[in-house]
Amino acid sequence: SETKKVLTPSNYVAERVLTPENTGSLLRARLEAAALESAKAVNTTPEEKAKLIKKQQDALAEFSLFVETQKILEKSAAKENNHRLDNLVPKNMPTLQIKGGPIRDNAKPVHDSLESFISAFERQLKSHNLPLDNHWERLFWLCLNDNQIPWFRRDLVDKNRTWADACTEIRKEYGNPFHVFLKRHELFAARPKSHESIRLHTECYLLLAQEAGRTNGIDLTFDFVSSLSSNVREKIYPVLARNYGTNWPTDIMEVSQLVISTLGENIDTNHTESNNKRHLSVNEPSPSKTKRKYGNCPVHPKGSHAASECEVLKKQHIHVKENNNNNNNTPAKLCRYCNKVPYQPGHRCQEYFDNETDITGKYKNNNFYTINTINTLQKQSTESLLLPLTLQTNKQVLGILDTGANKSFITPTLLKELEDLDIFLSWN
Q1: Looking at the record, which segments are called Disordered (predicted)?
Q2: 3-class state of residue 216 by DSSP
């Protein structure tokens, strides 16, 4: 007698693991064929009927065993995949350090805002196919230092929070309202730079919106369109009205693509084309190439105008004429002694000689003495000040000498020389 081998999940996997991918379809087709053959067998003997039923039962058992085996394999693969994901740690995890706050790791970048850090954290997890809700708590430890871990344990660890709830708590702890206000004002005043493409302006605008805490919506898309230049807005408003009507779009990228498809990407947003440019008509004759004619202007020898038409010469003639008029109207200078005749070099009037006689007689009885000054402390010092003094004898002389120094003094030798000359000295 032939011994039949009983199929179990273990030996089925061992024998059927290398079957083609369509094994399930083949087993299902075999089961359907056995059931159809058993249903068609009407006028058959009991032995043949029993064989058909046995064949159908074997096909059903084999298909059921295959389905059960597939479930076991899928669970094993899922468990292995989960184990692999649970042990997967991205290398470039960001550090929670925001611009304006403490720098905890100089080797890691400092984020411009809290939203920038959250975006970097999400980017790392999504790039490794790690679901945020399942792995954010395990990997968030790598973004903190010793001073931040107590807050993390107190508010977020083992709370069964989703990533959205965790972001809310992170914003409460590390969000800076003043920074958000500044970014919102910067977003309000954002305008495309000269020769900046629409695509680049869109990226900068979306980054500012993220740092300002703005999300996509009708208000944000309307603000984006309002940030464009006036000539772009005038052309895009009719297109938006024709495509969306009163249902204003809620996605900035959708509006940006519409602007690019309508006006082009590399448009100069600050340039307005003028319609006053004169174009050469087809019927107009082309300008003839004649030899250039030069004028006789001495100031512009390569110019084509005459000297009588030169504006520079006209201004020069007017200036010379004004100077001549001013010179003619200026009276001649008179002698400052007699004040009667115009002064000329060598002029000597009686008043001049009388004035010289008065000056000579005023000082003829005065005796002048010159005393050489003596250096302070008899040394050559940059802090000393040497001043020659002229003194008169038989006369009381009052004078003020301001040297700018805190103190002034004379040596005993100089004092003795002054006393011998019978000169009265007085100082404060």
Answers
A1: 269-297
A2: coil
Q: What is the DSSP letter of 246?
A: T
Say if CB 113 and CB 179 are below 8 A apart.
yes
Under 8 Å between Cβ of 228 and 193: no
Of 137, 13, 24, the residue nearest 75 (C-alpha)? 13
Residue among 253, 229, 220, 258 nearest 241 (CA): 258
In sequence order, what are the residues at sequence separation of 6 or more whose Cβ sits closer than 8 angstroms to the Cβ of residue 415? 425
Pairing of strands 368-371, 389-392: antiparallel
Provide block-wise average pLDDT over 10 residues at a time, the chain (428 residues).
46 46 72 77 76 80 80 72 70 85 82 86 89 89 87 88 90 77 85 85 85 83 89 87 87 88 67 52 58 79 84 76 60 83 82 77 56 49 53 53 60 75 56
Yes or no: say if 208 and 220 are a contact pair by the CB < 8 Å rule. no
What pLDDT shows up at residue 162?
92
Q: What is the pLDDT of residue 14?
A: 44
394-403 long-range contacts, CB within 8 A, separation 24+: 394/367, 395/366, 396/424
80 burial type by CB count under 10 A (0-12 exposed, 13-18 middle, 19+ buried): exposed
Distance CA 175, CA 170 (A): 7
Q: What is the DSSP letter of 377?
A: G
Cα 346 to Cα 79: distance, rounded to the nearest angstrom: 123
For residue 392, what are the β-bridge partners?
A: 368
pTM above the 0.85 mark? no
Residue 97: count other Cβ atoms within 10 Å of its Cβ.
Answer: 21
Taking each helix axis from N to C terminus, what angle separates 132-140 and 114-127, rounded to the nearest 10 degrees?
110
Q: What is the pLDDT of residue 13?
A: 46
Residue 371 CA, chain-centre distance (Å), reads: 73
Neighbours of 349 (CB within 10 A): 15
**Are 376 and 333 a contacting pair, CB within 8 Å?**
no
